[in-house]
Amino acid sequence: MLMADRKGVITKGAKEIAKGLSDTGRLRESEYRASVDALNLFFGAIVGVNFAGLTDLSSADYAILLFITATLIGFILMVSKTTRRIWLAVQLTIFMAGYAWLGLVERAIEGVDEKLVITLAVWTGAALLGEFTPRDPDPEPDA
């Protein structure tokens, strides 16, 4: 409920509250950058844990898996840097679906297991969600 003065005009405090509530789904630029950094650090570590368990792969299979996974991660990282967000989001989604299909269904890529695909899919989804969340510039510091 909005507070009003005697003439029915919304007071300044009520306007600020209403604006704050409408902005709850928006990120400031610094918040966006922090969330991207946190996602990349966390999921990079989880992918590293997945790769640490791949001791049974031949060197050739490991190299192929490493190259394909690094390419996918490159797409994930680029989505937060590009000016062509929609096109890269489409490419990332297609590449992630292809990675999962080739690794889990076709078994064409040795070493891809459900946990690695889940990790990369969640990272992809989180990166895309963050990229398409509305953002505002950081406020100017008080002088």
Describe it.
The protein has 143 residues and is mainly alpha-helical. The chain is built from five helices and two strands. It has helices at 12-22, 29-52, 59-78, 85-105, 114-131; strands spanning 27-28, 135-136. The protein has a two-stranded parallel sheet with strand order 1-2.
Structural class category = mainly alpha
Rg over CA atoms, rounded to whole Å, is: 22 Å
Q: What is the string of SSEs from the N terminus onward?
A: HEHHHHE
Put simply, the count of helices is 5
Please outline the major beta sheet. Answer: 2 strands, parallel
Quote the average pLDDT.
Answer: 87
Instruction: Give the termini distance in whole angstroms.
Output: 34 Å
Portion in strands:
under 5%
Percent of residues in helices: 55-70%
Low-confidence stretches: none
What is the spatial order of strands in the main beta sheet?
Answer: 1-2
Anisotropy-based shape: elongated
The counted number of beta strands is 2
In short:
With 143 residues, this protein is mostly helical. The chain contains 5 helices and 2 strands; from the N terminus they run H-E-H-H-H-H-E. The protein has a two-stranded parallel ribbon.
Key terms for this structure?
143 residues
